[in-house]
Amino acid sequence: MAKTLLESSALSAFCGSVATMLSAGIQTEEAVLMLAGNRERSRFQEVCNIMYENLVAGETFSQAMKATEGFPAYAVEMAATGEQSGHLEQVLRNLELYYDEEDKMFSKLRSAVGYPAWLLVIMAVILLFTVMFILPVFSDVYDNMAGSLASQSFASVGLSTVIGWVAFAITVVCAVAALYLSFSARTEAGRARVMKLFEKVPITSRAMYQLALSRFTAALATLVSSGITNEEAMTKAIATVDHRVLHKRLVAARDSMVDLDNPRSLAQAIGEHDVFEPLYARMLNVGMRSGSADETLAQLSQAFFDDAVLQIDESLDHIEPLLAAFLTIAIGVTLVAIMLPLVGIMGSIG
C-alpha cells in the first residue's frame, strides 16, 4: 500500500531547508538528519529518517527520496536531473517556490469553496424538508377541498413540488462538487486529482497547460545545462510531463528532432509543434544561438509559472461569487416553492 505523500507546505519547507544547508557546505545526509531532529514525530520526520538511512547506505539523493514514497514523482525526477547536471541546489530552490505557490493556491481554493459548500449543504437539507414535509401538507389540504378552489390550486402545488425537487437536485450536485474540491485540496493525492479535473474545465485548462509547461521547461533547462544532447534532454524532460495535450505535442516535437530525413533543432521543433507561443519560441531560438539556452529556458519556465498562477488566482476569485449567486437563487426558489400554493389558494378565493 502506497504511503502518504507530504503536503505541499512540507515539500516546500524540505526543499528550501536542504538547499540552504547545501549552500552552507553541509552534506545531504547530514542536512536530512538535521531536519528529522528538528521535527516532532510526524510523517515529515518519518520521511527524513528513511531518507537518511538510504543516503548513509550509499543511495543518491533522488533514490533516497523515491524510497520514502513521500515525494511526488515530479520532485523525484527533478532531483535526479539536478544531480545529473550538478545543479541540485538550484533545482531544490525551484521546487521550494513551486510547492509554496501550490500550497497557497490550494489554501485559497479551500477558503473559496469551503464556506459556500456548507451553506449549500444546509440549503439542500432545507429544500429536502420543504418538498418532503411542507408541500405534501398543501396537497392534503387540496384533497380535502372540493369545487373550483381545489382544481385551480392543484396546479400551483404541483408546480411548486417540481421546482422544489429540481432545486434540491441541483443544490446537492453543487454541494457535493464544492465539498469534493474543499476536502481534496487538503491532501497531495487529492490535489493531483483536482489538477486533472482542472485540465478538463474550460476556465482553468489553459492555466493547467501553462503549469505543466513550466514544469517541463524547468526540467529541460536543468538537463540542457548538464551538457547532454538536446535530443536526450528532450526525452528525459518529457518524462516529467503528465499533461495529455502537452505530452502529445512534446513527443511529436522530439520525433521531429531525431528525424533522419529532416532533423529539426530544439527551438524549431518546439515552435513548429506549438509547444510554446510564437514569441517564446523566438526567444528560445535567440537564446540557443547566443549559447544561453539553459538560462533562456529557466526564464521562460518562470514566465509560464507566473502566468499559470495568475490565471488560477483569477479563476478561484470567480468561484465564491458564483456559489454565492447560486445560493441566492436557491433561497429564492425555496421561497417560490413554498409561496406558490398560497398564491394558488389566494387566487382561488379571490
Itemize the secondary structure elements and their pairings.
Blueprint: H1 8-23, H2 28-37, H3 43-56, H4 61-68, H5 73-85, H6 88-143, H7 148-184, H8 188-200, H9 202-225, H10 230-238, H11 244-257, H12 266-272, H13 278-289, H14 293-349
The SSE order reads HHHHHHHHHHHHHH
Provide the helix percentage.
over 70%
Cα-to-Cα separation, first versus last residue: 70 Å
Q: What is the tally of helical segments?
A: 14
So what's the overall shape? elongated
**What class would the helix/strand composition place it in?**
mainly alpha
In the predicted model, the low-confidence regions spanning at least 5 consecutive residues are 146-150
Mean pLDDT: 80
Total domains, how many?
2
| Rg | 28 Å
List keywords for this structure.
2 domains; 14 helices; elongated; single chain; mainly alpha; 350 residues
Question: Can you describe what's shown?
Answer:
The protein is mainly alpha-helical and 350 residues long. It folds into 2 domains: 8-71, no CATH class; 100-350, no CATH class. It is built from 14 helices and no strands. Helix 3 (43-56) crosses helix 4 (61-68) and helix 10 (230-238) packs antiparallel against helix 11. The protein starts with 7 loop residues before the first helix and ends with a helix. Residues 146-150 have low confidence and may be disordered.
Summary of the model, kept short:
The protein is mostly helical and 350 residues long.
